[in-house]
Design goal:
With 154 residues, the protein is mainly beta. It has one domain (8-152): Calycin beta-barrel core domain (Lipocalin). It is built from 1 helix and 10 strands. The chain has one helix spanning 8-12, and strands at residues 18-26, 36-47, 52-61, 64-76, 81-88, 95-102, 105-112, 115-122, 128-136, 143-152. Strands 1-2-3-4-5-6-7-8-9-10 form a 10-stranded antiparallel beta barrel. A hairpin with a 6-residue loop joins strand 9 (128-136) and strand 10 (143-152). The longest helix is centred in the first third of the chain and has 5 residues, at 8-12. It is globular.
C-alpha cells in the first residue's frame, strides 16, 4: 500500500518549522495589569510524515520560565481550514483554533473559556516572523494581548 503524501496545503505549514526566539510585549490585562516584556522560545518540528507541525513553546520573564504551551498544527481537508490544537500550562481544556494561511500569514481564531482569541503568524519577512495574540469579549472588537518578533535561532 502506498501512503499518501502531504498536499500543497499541508506543506504550506512547513514555514513554521525550526527553532525561533524573540522578545514579546505583553499588553496590560487583568492578568498582568501593568503589562510586561517577556522572552519566547519556540521549537516547531514536522510530524506524521509532514501532515502536521508540532510546536513546543516557553515564555520567560525575569529569567524564569513562567508559561509553557504545546500545539499541533494541521490542515483539515474536509473543513478546508488550518487547525491548531493548543494545550498549555494554565491547565485549562485544550483549545481548537481554525483559520487560513494566505500570502505567508497564518491567522486562526478560537472561542476559549476566557472569550474569543485570534492568533497571527506573519512570515512575510525573511528569517523572522511576527506573532500576535488578540482577545475579544464578543469576536467583534479585538484587543492586543501579546506581540512579538521571532528570529530563527538554529
Amino acid at each position: 500500500m502506498e501512503m499518501p503524501t502531504p498536499s500543497p496545503a499541508d506543506q504550506a505549514l512547513h514555514i513554521l518549522e525550526g527553532s525561533w526566539s524573540g522578545q514579546e510585549k505583553i499588553h496590560p490585562s487583568p492578568f498582568v495589569p501593568s503589562g510586561a516584556v517577556a522572552f519566547g522560545r519556540v521549537v516547531n518540528r514536522l510530524a506524521l510524515d509532514g501532515f502536521a507541525v508540532i510546536q513546543d513553546y516557553q515564555q520567560e520573564t525575569a529569567g524564569k520560565v513562567n508559561f509553557r504551551g504545546h500545539g499541533v498544527f494541521r490542515y483539515d481537508r474536509e473543513k478546508k481550514a488550518y487547525i491548531l490544537y493548543w494545550f498549555d500550562s494554565f491547565g485549562l481544556p485544550p483549545s481548537e483554533y481554525v483559520g487560513d494561511l494566505v500570502d505567508r500569514v497564518l491567522c486562526l481564531t478560537a472561542i476559549t473559556l476566557q472569550g474569543h482569541a485570534r492568533v497571527t503568524w506573519d512570515f512575510s519577512h525573511l528569517g523572522h516572523y511576527h506573532y500576535s495574540l488578540e482577545v475579544s469579549p464578543d469576536g467583534k472588537e479585538w484587543f492586543p494581548s501579546i506581540e512579538g518578533r521571532y528570529d530563527r535561532s538554529e
